[in-house]
């Protein structure tokens, strides 16, 4: 008895939209949100769009104590043709269900979730900023809201989608950042929750991030939790290295998030006949390549920044300057192509974008 | 400009208290709760006791997305003298601040937090059940409630204390459980958040727990995340083994929670001149002791169960039956002594209990 019809309760008031030059990331939210409830025995039910509003939760709700929660992040873009498009949203819905499986949250109907996102984005399309590089960030998430202090999966959940107009990640063009290799703190380990998009991974990362930002670095480069040898991710992005003409990214191993941008980068490079490998890569290997003058580029890949070039990589007291601290050729081409596809200024050979109507 | 005076806003209505034989764990809450706010720049402020009520949170609150949260757990007991007592509450407050440090949450005034707990417990003292083994469970926790989707520490928090009358953990006397050694999933790893009492550790544990409970086990025994060799915890308790007259518990290593009951067990054993060691202990060592007939007892130690004897330990296809599946002598003596101190039927040589007035 699945309900597929989304009830819509429109807001009586409209918030002022931020000026184009005032846009930040994730601070302002649109007028409406989507909610879907789960109750053990009844499944997911009552899909509805309602005015953006506070959530009312019992203080004993499982999410506050045991963090049983998952989320996703994607964006809606206004193309140069004036259409509203999403980028590979079905990949986010698939990953949401993989995260659900790891976190003991019931599977969600991916087509209903995607339909809900599209209906909500369409309703809020006036909120999508149109200046170059701006977009509407979409945050679907699930929280466990049973009021129970036992350590057990919740019997009730809410799937919620909120929207936030966001500014260009790079205000003055794509710009390399300084990264510090993290040797003390660990983001995730095989058998843990690293491949799930769940709250605890991000909570765990705050301390290392706080310490390196005091030293002037933008993010940390995470190493594996076992040997502190192999590279995993950079900040909350996947990471790529170009060494002697070949591009390498850490293989998925149970502790690395399977990024949608990561997957798109691999497909584009393959399409361009640039050799690209998913395999283990150690900091020793990166350092040796650097010393031999073969470390050509390094960059993060994720939804927020798309491509984030690494200009300086600090490890064991050494500051490796990569590509003279400038954005590399492949990084730039990937950024231009991916954003070009997203904003409709480039052709979309893989059919990655999906129109919202 | 710290406010130390706790404002009290009493509830107009009183909930019905559960019958003594209907008490569960963490499902029913008392009439009031304590709240303390944190705002960047102002620090912790506005301590207050208010009617137990839902929390109202922006859906973009950091706790829902990035799980920046910590908690504690302790109990209030009515002693045979009719007094209300807490067990080593200052240890919980110290650990709360250690957890805060790891999770980038501002330090809290431990004496104010303890004062708040005492005032709240005193106000709700009619809620403390008095049947043997029952108590009032106290759950202090901190949530990050800034509405911001950036991965960064929150600028606002709430410290909240809720109370729940709980039944006896063992309805028919202390009872050994079946435990399965976990070989796939990992609870925590050095450099992660295992030694902090934070939501993500518990979310991470749900899947393994779900799988073994389908096979008839009560909990998993967690091994280290590096080699899957050394023992860490059992379920959400610390763990002890008695081998050939000596008691061994895994040493604190950054991924093991420093339990208050663990510390009390070590002190009691030392007081009784029972050899007790905090050191690495591998499953191989436990298995060899078992084969040699030297594995005398095994038990978990934590606030909820106090002492939880392990009757069967399953590992690599073998079911190790410990002490004929019965509660061992040391386990029983520790349980009787700890609960005796808590309920005032035994003397309290260490001054562990603290009167609430």
Automatic annotation (TrEMBL), chains A, B:
Its cofactor is pyridoxal 5'-phosphate. CDD domains: BCAT_beta_family. Pfam families: Aminotran_4. SUPFAM superfamilies: D-aminoacid aminotransferase-like PLP-dependent enzymes. The keyword Amino-acid biosynthesis applies. Signal peptide: none annotated. This is Branched-chain-amino-acid aminotransferase. It comes from Aquibacillus rhizosphaerae.
């Amino acid at each position: 008895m699945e309900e597929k019809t989304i009830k819509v309760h429109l807001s009586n008031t409209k918030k002022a939209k931020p000026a184009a030059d005032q846009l930040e990331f994730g601070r302002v939210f649109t007028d409406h949100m989507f909610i879907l409830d789960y109750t053990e025995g009844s499944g997911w039910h009552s899909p509805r769009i309602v005015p953006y509003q506070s959530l009312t939760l019992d203080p004993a709700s499982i999410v506050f104590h045991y963090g049983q929660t998952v989320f996703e992040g994607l964006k809606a873009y206004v193309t140069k043709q004036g259409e509203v498009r999403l980028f590979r949203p079905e990949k986010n819905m698939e990953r949401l269900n993989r995260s659900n499986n790891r976190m003991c949250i019931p599977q969600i109907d991916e087509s209903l979730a995607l339909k809900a996102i599209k209906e909500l984005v369409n309703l809020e399309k006036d909120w999508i900023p149109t200046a170059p590089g701006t977009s509407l960030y979409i945050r679907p998430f699930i929280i466990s809201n049973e009021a129970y202090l036992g350590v057990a999966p919740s019997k009730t959940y809410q799937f919620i989608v909120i929207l936030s107009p966001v500014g260009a990640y790079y205000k003055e063009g794509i710009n390399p950042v300084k990264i510090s290799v993290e040797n003390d703190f660990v983001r995730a380990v095989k058998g843990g929750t690293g491949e799930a998009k769940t709250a605890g991974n991000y909570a765990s990362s705050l301390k290392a991030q706080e310490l390196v930002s005091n030293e002037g670095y933008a993010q940390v480069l995470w190493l594996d939790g076992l040997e502190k040898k192999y590279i995993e991710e950079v900040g909350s992005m996947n990471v790529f290295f170009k060494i002697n003409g070949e591009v390498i990214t850490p293989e998925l191993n149970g502790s690395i998030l399977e990024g949608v941008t990561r997957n798109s980068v691999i497909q584009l490079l393959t399409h361009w006949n640039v050799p690209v490998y998913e395999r283990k890569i150690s900091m020793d290997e990166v350092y040796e390549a650097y010393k031999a003058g073969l470390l050509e580029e390094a960059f993060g890949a994720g939804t927020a920044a798309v491509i984030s070039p690494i200009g300086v990589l600090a490890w064991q007291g050494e500051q490796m300057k990569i590509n003279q601290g400038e954005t590399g050729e492949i990084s730039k081409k990937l950024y231009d192509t991916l954003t070009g596809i997203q904003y409709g200024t480039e052709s979309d050979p893989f059919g990655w974008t999906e129109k919202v109507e």
